[in-house]
Amino acid sequence: MTEIEKLMQDYLSYLEIEKNRSRKTQENYGRYLKVFIKESGIRSARDITQDTVRNFRLKLAKGDTKKITQSYYVIAIRSFLKYLIKRGMKALSPEMIELPKVTRREIEVLSYDELERLVGTPAGSDIRSLRDRAILETLFSTGLRLSELCSLDRYIDWKRGEISIRGKGDKLRVVFLSPTAKEKLKAYLDKRTDTEEALFVSISKAKVPKVLGRVIPRAVERLVDFYARKAGIAKKVHPHLLRHSFATDLLVNGADLRSVQELLGHANIATTQIYTHLTNKELREVHSAFHGVRRKEK
Fold first, then answer.
1. Catalytic: 207?
2. Which of 40-54, 104-118, 133-147, 181-195 has the lowest mean pLDDT?
3. Is 243 part of the annotated catalytic residue set?
4. Are 91 and 84 in contact (CB under 8 A)?
5. Contact, 220 vs 135, CB < 8 A?
6. Contact 111/234 with Cβ under 8 angstroms?
7. What is the pLDDT of residues 172-230, one digit of tens each?
8. Are 89 and 169 in the same domain?
9. 168 CB-contact burial (10 Å; exposed 0-12 / middle 13-18 / buried 19+)
C-alpha cells in the first residue's frame, strides 16, 4: 500500500468516526479519490499539486463527465486536502482549487392529476399490489429519500401517524403519514403473515408468494417506473420525483420554508430553496395584479 492509499484509508475512517458521515458518503468520497489517485499517478501527499488537479479536471471535462459529477470529484479532493492539513501535513491548500460553476437544473414535479393516477394504479387486493400502493402513498406522504424508505422497519406510531427516520448524516427526524397513507399501509400489513422486521419487503412471483427479505432500492425504482408508464405518464418518473412533488405540494399550499427543510431532512436551507421558484404564490399574485395593467384597462 502506497503512502497516499494509507492516508486515504485513514481519511475515510475519519469521515466515519469523527465526522459521522453516512456510509454512502464514505463510499462516494472513496470512489472519487481512488479515480483521482490512479488517473494522476499520485503516490504521496506532495504529488497533489495545482497542476495534477488541473490536468485531472481537464481529463474529466474531455471525457464528457457531467459538470455536477466533476464538482463531486473536486469536493472530495478539497475535503481530503483539508484532512491532510489538519493532520499537520504539508499539502496543497483546498482554497487553491475552485469549485466548478454548476447550473442547477429545473426541478421536475408531477402534476396533481399525474400523482393521483400514479398512486391509484396498483388497485389489486393481492399482497404485491397492496405493498406497491403503500410504497407510493408513503413516498408522497413523507417525502422520504429512497434509501430511507427501504430502511424502514414495521414500527409506526399509528395514533400520531408518525415515523422516526434516521437520515443523512445519521440525523433523526420525524415524518408524518396522511390518512390515505395510513389506510394503505394497514391494508398491506394486515395481508402479511411473515415475521420480517422490514416494513417493505421483496415478494416472490410464485403462485403462493413468499417474502424474500427487505425490499432493495432498485426494486422500488422499477415499480415506480412500471406504474408511471401504466398510468400513461409521459415523463420519466423515479422515486425522487415523488420527494420533489411532496416538497412542492407543501410550499404551494402555504408551508414555510424552514418547516419543509425539517420534513425533508435538508442540512442546509439553500437546498430547500430550489423548490421556491415553482411555488412562490406571492410573486405570482403580484404579477397577476400589476403586470400589464394598462393593457387590461383597454
1. no
2. 104-118
3. yes
4. yes
5. yes
6. no
7. 899 999 999 999 999 999 999 898 999 999 998 888 888 888 999 999 999 999 999 99
8. no
9. middle
Place of cell 479515480: 35
- Regarding whether 208 and 247 lie in a shared domain, the answer is yes
Number of domains in the chain: 2
Per the structure, the complete domain to which residue 201 belongs is given by 112-282
Strand partners, 287: none
User: Which residues are CB-contacts of 36 (< 8 A; sequence separation ≥ 6)?
Assistant: 42, 56, 73, 76, 77
275 is catalytic: yes
Q: How many residues does the chain have?
A: 298
Does 133 qualify as catalytic in the annotation?
Answer: no
Pairwise CA distance, residues 268 & 169, whole Å: 12
Does residue 142 share a domain with residue 89? no
Annotated catalytic residue, options 57, 131, 243, 244: 243
Q: Is 199 exposed, middle or buried (0-12, 13-18, 19+ CB in 10 A)?
A: buried
Tell me, yes or no, if 240 is annotated catalytic.
yes
The catalytically annotated residue of 82, 117, 168, 214 is: 168
Cell 453516512 sits at which residue? 22
User: What residues have CB less than 8 Å from 178, skipping those under 6 apart?
Assistant: 137, 141, 161
List the catalytic residue out of 21, 145, 184, 244.
Answer: 145
Catalytic residue flag (residue 266): yes
Whether 267 has a pLDDT exceeding 90, the answer reads no
Q: In terms of domains, do 160 and 195 share one?
A: yes
Whether 127 and 148 have beta carbons less than 8 Å apart is answered as no
Has residue 287 been placed in a domain? no
What is the value of pTM for the model shown?
0.67
Question: How many angstroms separate the CA atoms of 203 and 214, rounded?
Answer: 9
Do 208 and 159 sit in the same domain of this protein?
A: yes
- Of 96, 120, 146, the residue at which a domain comes to its end is 96
